[in-house]
Amino acid sequence: MTISFNHTIVFSRDRSVSALFFTTLFGLPDAVAAGPFLAVGLGNGVTLDFATSPVEVLPQHYAFLVSETDFDAIYGRICANGMDHWADPRKARPGEINRNDGGRGVYFHDPDGHNLEIITRPYGSGG
Fold first, then answer.
1. Which stretches within the chain are classed as H helix?
2. Contact in structure between 51 and 12 (CB atoms under 8 Å)
3. Does domain 8-55 have CATH number 3.30.720.120?
4. What is the C-alpha separation between 116 and 37, in angstroms, rounded?
């Protein structure tokens, strides 16, 4: 049996603001309305379905494996927008990226406080 991840719901204070932040920062096509959600498609057929939450949004962690080229573009937008970012999840290395497993990675927040991460090599892949 093959099991593939298909979608997840990302709760936000305003689904439009959050979906636009994500598509703009990641350089993705506009979100598509899907019932009460705004679906943002990722390259592997997975969607992030943004929903406006009726209760306080609790921060979650979302990590994305990106190419070196995409990392450069996304990180460039993070810096150009003056966004806080860290090399580590504990925020002990502000304004830096990491070089874990021979790749690059960085942590930052979306407008709802979700902890986002982009990496160019999966953890444990060596390097």
1. 15-26, 68-80
2. yes
3. yes
4. 20
Angle at 77 between CA 92 and CA 12, to 5 degrees: 75
127: confidence class by pLDDT, cuts 50, 70, 90: low
CA 46 to chain centre: 13
- pTM, two decimals, is 0.94
Q: What is the pLDDT of residues 4-31, one digit of tens each?
A: 999 999 999 999 999 999 999 999 999 9
Q: What's the CATH number of domain 59-127, 3.10.180.10, 3.40.50.80, 3.30.1510.10, 3.30.230.10?
A: 3.10.180.10
The per-residue b/e assignment along 76-88, b for 16 or more CB within 10 angstroms, e otherwise, is: eebeeeeeebbbe
Integer angstrom CA distances of residue 56 from 11, 19, 20, 38 = 9, 18, 20, 19
Residue of 61, 55, 120, 109 whose CA lies nearest to 86? 109
